[in-house]
Amino acid sequence: MADGQFLSVIDSIFSSIQNDIGSSLSQINQVVQQFQKLYQTTVAPLAAINQARGFVANPPEHALVLSVDEKSQIQALDRTQPGLPMKKGRGTIMTHDYKRNGTTTLFAALDTATGEVYGLCQQRHRHQEWLRFLRMIDQTVPAGKQIYLICDNYAKHKHERVQRWLGKHKRFHVRFTPTSASWLNMIERFFRDLTTNQIRRGVFQDLEQLVTAIGNYIDHHNKDPKPFIWTAKANDILEKVTRAQTALNKRRSA
Predict the structure, then answer these.
(1) Where would a tag sit more exposed on the chain, N or C end, judged by fewer CB atoms within 10 A?
(2) How many angstroms separate the Cα of 19 from the Cα of each of 27, 28, 29, 31?
(3) Tens digit of pLDDT for each residue in 201-222?
(4) Is 80 within 8 Å of 95 (Cβ atoms)?
(5) pTM of the entire predicted model
(6) Domains of the chain, start order
């Protein structure tokens, strides 16, 4: 059952309960919200985790599985003063204030089998830019391969023009992660490395320097790419999420 169908059924069930027992609207909404949280942290992620792990561990024959997403609003930050290098007894020092020199959005796809990354920086984050990135993938990947995309269900990924384009390019197959479950996507792990190793402590005097630095990092990564190995089981992941949610709820109620 799809996300919307499940929640629609829950809404109809509790509407009937309200009519039968006269419960207040706020009480009904609270129960519905609890079921939504239950679904988002158990039913939907369990199926999505198993599907994502299945694609990664056993990709379809003659197919390329790409973990795809955007890292939006990456800022080109220039410090107001030069940083001081690390020396004995003191780490590197950088000023807390900075100057913004524009932003860029990185569209990236991670080959889950090899670890190779395809990237394209663009100024905006709309369906037009998403289509431009899909065309780049189509031109880059050999014609004989089927392409499976794992991405979140962001509205721009489902835009009407995107759907028409996908309909004309039959080798593309899209698998969406559930709402609030973009952590399933392995490209997020690459984004973390990019942020930690290249962007966070960088100094970029203009947007071109930032885009060049991102491109250089991807090129360096692709010289010796290594795939991320997913070893955790779906139930283990969900048990961890449940423990974290329980701890968070205790803190909120304290």
Answers:
(1) C
(2) 13, 11, 14, 15
(3) 888 999 999 999 999 999 999 9
(4) yes
(5) 0.73
(6) 1-58 (no CATH), 61-223 (3.30.420.10)
Tokens of residue 130, six digits? 């998403």
In the predicted structure, residue 74 carries a pLDDT above the cut 80: yes
Contact 62, 146 (CB under 8 A): yes
Length of the chain: 254
Supply the pLDDT for residue 233.
Answer: 72
